[in-house]
Amino acid sequence: MNTRMEDADSIGVATQPGVAASARPAELDRVVSKVGRRLMWFLVALYLVAIMDRSNISFAALTMNGAIGLSPKAFGIGVGAMFFTYALFEIPSNLLLARIGARATLTRIAILWGFVTMLMALASGPLSFWSLRAALGAAESGLFPGVMLFLSFWFPYAWRARYNAVFNLAVPIAYILSGVVSGSILTMDGTWGLAGWQWLFVIEGAPAVLLGIVGAVYLTNRPADAQWLSPAERHLLVTALDERPPSGRVFERTSMLRALLNPIVVTMGLCNTLLFCGLTSAQVWLPQMIKTYHSSYTTIGLLSAVPPLAGLVGMLTLGRLSDRWPHRFLHTSLAFLLSALGFVMVACAHSLWLTLSGFTLATVGILATQAIFWTIPQSFLHRSTAAGAIGAIGMLGSIGGAIMPMIVGQMRMQTHSFTTGFITVAVACVAGSALIGVLHRLLKQHR
After folding, report:
1. Would residue 27 count as lying in a domain?
2. CATH number of the domain that 314 lies in?
3. CB distance 195 to 189 below 8 Å
């Protein structure tokens, strides 16, 4: 996807042609493609496993909630607890990555969260469930913003959005696999004395540990350290990465505190908060809602894979559209509204197929929102403060992921229905759409 025209027409930013327009654009494109082949499969696999380990709770809940005595409110608190601790350590983790490198940071994250996921099989009541979910959030904290920062170390501006999109493909693929695999694992109930939901955590936690071990010897922190690139390739890539960012960036060089308190960074973070309200609602409640129609575990798994499959196609389609007509803010805002429409359909649905259709529309919108939105902070933040600023944006997003499941769970327990909860999610998405407009205006004023 072509990202050379980064909203220049809509906010008055003149893009820099840089190395990509120099005498060797084809050679640089070849080197960037080589980097992509080397790194992206691992990063996508890492995030895919993370999303599966984060979301398998939605399938475990089908039998776990009754087995250990979780009410809808208690379950919602557990879902949100992970995002609270995730938010708490997000900035420190990103600053640590910038200091010691991605190889040590990302592999540490993978190994820890894999072990904690397997320990989830030991949950025996609300308190242990909440504690283990909180530990999972602390273990996984910093993964997404860390990878966003890591990609900025390797991919010049003109290539960054397409590789963001490749990385974000892990989300719908993980939901698809989770739907297909998790339903089957639940049928192992009673094998070797373990319940199906316990097998779910044990089996799906192990790949993260293995990926962490692989990453410890496979990842390279910076292009200058890449022995798998020739000296000429390293020089060409480093030169492209060192070119000045596009004009219109939020600030040149400033203190970390000023960067974190910058109104534009705060607004980006609040946009991400509302984005996470939709992301955490698009899948976590779906299996339980399908179960109310008396479906088998296998059927629940297969039907739960439909919305993320559509989201995969929709994210790619809308992402390409955003690259072809580069109005990032407009496209992000419209994708937010699309997800809001889907959540309204879910709230009003009284049949399995309307529920599934609503979730499908919401998933397409919210995944497209995430893929397009993250091109904005990467393009307008200066590299000197990007680690902390991206960490802060991610932290604020995690707060939305922590709060919204609690709200939906509480409303379901009070009303015995998901209607009010999903109307609230839809309102959050509409607010996100409006806040993208505010962000657009702030950046126009800053130019």
Report:
1. yes
2. 1.20.1250.20
3. yes
What's at 163, amino acid-wise?
Y
Inter-axis angle of helices 263-279 and 383-415, to 10 degrees? Answer: 40
Tens of pLDDT, residue by residue over 147-181, are 988 988 898 877 776 787 788 888 888 888 887 88
Highest mean pLDDT among 6-15, 85-94, 321-330: 85-94
Q: Specify the residue for token string 């197929």.
A: 353
Phi/psi of residue 415, nearest 5 degrees: -105, -10
Amino acid (one-letter) located at 179 = G
**Residue 209 maps to a domain:** yes
Share of the chain above pLDDT 70, in %: 87
Helices (H), 243-327: 256-261, 263-279, 286-291, 297-304, 306-324
| Domain residue limits at 122 | 17-446
- Number of structural domains, the chain? 1
Question: Could you tell me if residue 277 is inside a domain?
Answer: yes
pLDDT, tens only, 99-112: 888 999 999 999 99
pLDDT for 385-396, tens place per residue? 666 787 888 888
**Cα separation values, 56 from 91, 203, 304, 316, Å:** 26, 11, 12, 24
Residue 9 placed within a domain: no
Count of alpha carbons within 13 Å of 2, Cβ hemisphere only? 9
pTM of the predicted model as reported, rounded to 2 decimal places: 0.77
Q: With contact defined as beta carbons under 8 Å apart, do 237 and 229 qualify?
A: yes
**CB-CB contact of 370 with 316 (8 Å):** no
Reduce the secondary structure of 66-95 to three states and give it as a string.
HHHCCCHHHHHHHHHHHHHHHHHCHHHHHH
Find the Cα–Cα–Cα–Cα dihedral 65, 79, 93, 222, rounded to 10°. Answer: 90
Closest CA to 333 of 318, 345, 351: 318
